[in-house]
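hey so u asked for the seq, here:
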Amino acid sequence: MTKTYLEPVEVEKLEDASEYLRDRLLVRLLFRTGCRISEALGISVDDIDFNRGIVTIQHLKARVRLSCPECHTRLSRTASFCPGCGQKVEKAVAEEKEHRRQRTLPLDRDTLTMMKEYIDRGGSVSRNGSKLLFGIRRRQASQIVSELAVKVGIEDLANPETGKIHGVSPHRLRDAFAIMAVKKNDTGDGIRLLHEHLGHQSIVTTMKYRKVAGEEHREWYENLWEGGKEDGQVRQSQ
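ran it, structure tokens below
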């Protein structure tokens, strides 16, 4: 059966197989923080507070809003008539809006030490007036992770929702963090803190990790048959 997520021991193998400190730090940061690849690549040296052991994550997301060309009422993507003025919509007006959010994440001591060593060695890259931690593009980051997975023999993973098979990617490290967090604490407070940590807009998105990580369904199902077996033995003895 094809696996759906990485285990922490497999992430450790990716780290150990990294030839360069940059690649090792990239893998570690994606897993230890659970941040998105776009967020990791956007981290600057100024975003890291070594004294407090935290990193500020910037998340910029562009959204397209459709509106009626006549009355400017907001439209759904499938709307044929405007709910505001009732006119037939031949071509909706598309307006792109950027939503910028930020959150502050704690960092463990080992990751902070690795980051400091990397920066002290001159690993950061100056770009547009700021010193980026990683001076690489998203495509290159994805290639680093996928090639390390091949190197250590980690097979492709199945998407738990669609069943499609994909190679190991940076987002799989985010998934691995979330699964591990749920396995260690799936209480209401634990899920709430994970929701805030991952930066999800809806807690429904966070809850999908509980579904993947949980063993409750299997335990419930197995208990059905164990109970049925006992009941059957009772009936036969009667």
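DSSP finds nine helices and eight strands in the chain. Residues 71 and 85 are 7 Å apart (CA to CA).
lmk if thats what u needed
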